[in-house]
Amino acid sequence: MALLLIPGLVLAQVAWARTQYFGDELSRAVARYDKGAGISIDDAVKMVEKMFKARVVRADVSEEGGRKVYVLRLLSDKGRVWSVTVDADTGELR
Fold it and tell me: Against a cut of 0.85, is the pTM above it?
């Protein structure tokens, strides 16, 4: 079981480090998708990490209702795991 957690923890640490390094990237991402340019998966990850104060440990691209979405799995500091879906065109949570 512990071996299954190691890759997730490594990815979580990478996501956390990336968030710490790119401070104001979130505001630039918001400006881009406000102009109708859509949002990248990296921008979606940064956005939800800041919003939920958790780390993204898995990110997938999917289609929902004919629209491209990002399905992001988060891990809180207290060990809670959950998923959120972000619309790739608007940046809105679904």
Answer: no
